[in-house]
Amino acid sequence: MAVPEQDTQVSTLRKIITSELEPLARRFRALFSLKYLASLQPPSEQTVPAIEAIAAAFSSPSALLKHELAYCLGQTRNDAAILPLRNVLEDEEEDAMCRHEAAEALGALGDMGSLELLKRLRDNKGEVEVVRETCEIAVDRIEWEHSKQRKDEQLKQSDFASIDPAPPLPQAKQTPSIPELEKALLDTSLPLFQRYRAMFALRDLSSPPDLPTAVPAVQSLARGFSDPSALFRHEIAFVFGQLSHPASIPSLIETLSNTKEASMVRHEAAEALGSLGDEEGVEDTLRKFLDDPEQVVRDSVIVALDMAEFEKNGEAEYAIVPGTSEPIAV
């Protein structure tokens, strides 16, 4: 009896993503192929095996890979992703960057059953700050997701399909101006969830890149790199990676070049630059950090250069796994 092609595909991708002998960039491409299968709506018979394949790679020593695994699981809209994410979040021996991403992913899944865990870590003063802050946002997101407020809000259709840590601010009769959104973005007296809502509202004003509001909104977002929270600065870099707007390049290079910056922020800046790989000088800049003292930064640069190559070659999807005969379209 012939093995179904999809079964073979998931099995092959699982072998790639869990093998420490595979190049990191190839494992990332396998991950995004699995993410596509894991996120199918409605779910297919490949959905749970793909989720299990992603979760199996949490045994890797690579903090960068595990961080990305958690992110992808949070985008699946599938409860099968909850348990492995909780396990990562509860593991105090795990890298804080991975635990933060697991908390954020549980928030993205809107899992009410994780509220007790998230609140406990949020309220634990001895917890790592980035984990505590992420749990705060995740709690607010889950409670918002299941609230009457959510049902009453009108949200602008976004160009981005991602499930974000916070939704953009709701539509109002009078759209907030960019200076008003920037004020909320930078106001450290506001809850992080509210500031993130301003962040994603500014993101949506930056896309498509030829919008009259795009460059001013990107410039407002870039001012977020001065925030005292490493988590917040990391999210600014992530948003810039989504936007791939050339106006973000100077602030991303400055962030990556700052060796005093938190590694989780620098790594995100490197990956964001990878999404801008077809812009002049970006690849040369990234190559300067291939020998960076921080492992997660070095690894991010490797992945970013692979992304840059993908951008330059005009490939259809980054999820294509090099060397396989049939690429997965996402």
TrEMBL record:
Pfam families: HEAT_2 (PF13646). Residues 148-176 are annotated as: Disordered. Binds 2 Fe(2+) ions per subunit. Its cofactor is Fe(2+). Keywords: Cytoplasm, Hypusine biosynthesis, Iron, Metal-binding, Monooxygenase, Nucleus, Oxidoreductase, Repeat. It is an enzyme of class 1 (oxidoreductase). GO terms for molecular function: deoxyhypusine monooxygenase activity; metal ion binding. Its EC number is 1.14.99.29. Its main location: cytoplasm. Fe cation 2 binds at H234, E235, H267, E268. Pathway: Protein modification; eIF5A hypusination. The keyword ATP-binding does not apply. GO terms for cellular component: cytoplasm; nucleus. Fe cation 1 binds at H67, E68, H100, E101. InterPro entries: ARM-like, ARM-type_fold, Deoxyhypusine_hydroxylase, PBS_lyase_HEAT. It is found in: Cytoplasm; Nucleus. It catalyses: [eIF5A protein]-deoxyhypusine + AH2 + O2 = [eIF5A protein]-hypusine + A + H2O. Belongs to the deoxyhypusine hydroxylase family. PANTHER family: DEOXYHYPUSINE HYDROXYLASE, PBS LYASE HEAT-LIKE PROTEIN. HAMAP family: Deoxyhypusine_hydroxylase. Catalyzes the hydroxylation of the N(6)-(4-aminobutyl)-L-lysine intermediate to form hypusine, an essential post-translational modification only found in mature eIF-5A factor. This is Deoxyhypusine hydroxylase. It comes from Lophiotrema nucula. The gene is LIA1.
